[in-house]
């Protein structure tokens, strides 16, 4: 009898486990990372969707509803989600907020032309850490720890999923480092729309010439554009890239006025709705292959 009860309990618990836990990720790239670790135990809803720009995003009522029904809220942090507090309040979200970049040493940028009154300029934190695979390994660990705490029954599964995913990320990082190392350092220069690829540049020693700052909000002035065009000619930069989330108009202007070629759009802050760039692996592979092809 006891054995039969145990079997019934086991069957029942497997039904209970079949109901995935509901979590929200602030943007599409992070949504994929959470899904890779969570597997089928987790239902991931995303606020800023594929092709959307998190820097200037505004929540709709449907977004607030996603959040109010979730038990975990994964965010990038480092100032990426400027709307975070407003959205939490509007959704009356009382669950845990997991900042996945915890433990990552962030890059800081000097913003040119924004000098403080007392003479020193403040570095600005670059939030786009997901372009460095080594930072993504830390994010995956943070996601795995949060899911294990929220759903201890699935702990073993989350650990396994995270380990398998991390192995793929590390392998991709090793291959990518070797491919960039084969290109002479002086040629490793690219122009991008906004300053989103700092972590990729730091990881593989690529010099970046962004049109905009680390947010997409401000467009460069005519004077800044002219200075950048001079710089591209002088440094013989071969490749310019537009992004999936921003207007390609300025990048096209640069290509017309210099000998630089426009590469395929880079996925900077959002995934695509379709393959190949609908996962972090696909996005990273596309971006690095596009840059490598342009620099060869
Ligand atoms: Zn950005």
From TrEMBL:
Source domain of life: Bacteria
UniProt keyword annotations, A-Z: Metal-binding, Signal, Transport
A Pfam family hit: ZnuA
Cited InterPro entries: AdhesinB, Bact_metal-bind_prot9, Lipoprotein_PsaA-like, ZnuA-like
UniProt-annotated location(s): Cell envelope
Signal peptide coordinates: 1-18
PANTHER family, alphabetized: HIGH-AFFINITY ZINC UPTAKE SYSTEM PROTEIN ZNUA-RELATED, METAL-BINDING PROTEIN HI_0362-RELATED
Family: Belongs to the bacterial solute-binding protein 9 family.
Record-given protein name: Metal ABC transporter substrate-binding protein
Species lineage: Bacteria, Pseudomonadati, Pseudomonadota, Betaproteobacteria, Neisseriales
């Amino acid at each position: 009898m006891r054995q039969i009860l145990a079997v019934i309990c086991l069957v029942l618990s497997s039904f209970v486990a079949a109901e995935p836990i509901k979590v929200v990720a602030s943007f599409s790239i992070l949504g994929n990372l959470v899904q890779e670790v969570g597997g089928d135990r987790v239902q991931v809803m995303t606020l800023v969707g594929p092709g959307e720009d998190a820097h200037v995003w505004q929540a709709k009522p449907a977004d607030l509803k996603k959040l109010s029904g979730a038990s975990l809220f994964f965010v990038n942090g480092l100032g990426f989600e400027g709307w975070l507090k407003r959205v939490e309040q509007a959704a009356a979200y009382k669950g845990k907020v997991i900042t996945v970049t915890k433990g990552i040493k962030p890059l800081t940028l000097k913003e040119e032309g924004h000098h403080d009154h007392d003479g020193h300029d403040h570095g600005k934190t670059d939030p786009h850490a997901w372009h460095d695979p080594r930072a993504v390994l830390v994010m995956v660990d943070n996601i795995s720890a949060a899911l294990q705490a929220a759903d201890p029954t699935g702990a073993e599964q989350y650990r396994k999923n995270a380990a398998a995913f991390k192995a793929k990320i590390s392998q991709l990082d090793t291959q990518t480092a070797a491919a960039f190392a084969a290109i002479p350092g002086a040629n490793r220069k690219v122009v991008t729309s906004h300053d989103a690829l700092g972590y990729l540049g730091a990881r593989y020693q690529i010099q970046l010439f962004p049109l905009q700052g680390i947010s997409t909000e401000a467009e460069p002035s005519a004077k800044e554009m002219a200075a950048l065009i001079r710089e591209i000619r002088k440094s013989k930069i071969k490749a310019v890239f537009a992004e999936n989330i921003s207007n390609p108009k300025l990048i096209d202007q640069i290509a017309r006025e210099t000998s630089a070629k426009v590469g395929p759009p880079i996925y900077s802050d959002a995934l695509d709705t379709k393959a190949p760039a609908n996962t972090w692996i696909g996005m990273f592979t596309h971006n690095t292959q596009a840059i490598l092809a342009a620099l060869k």
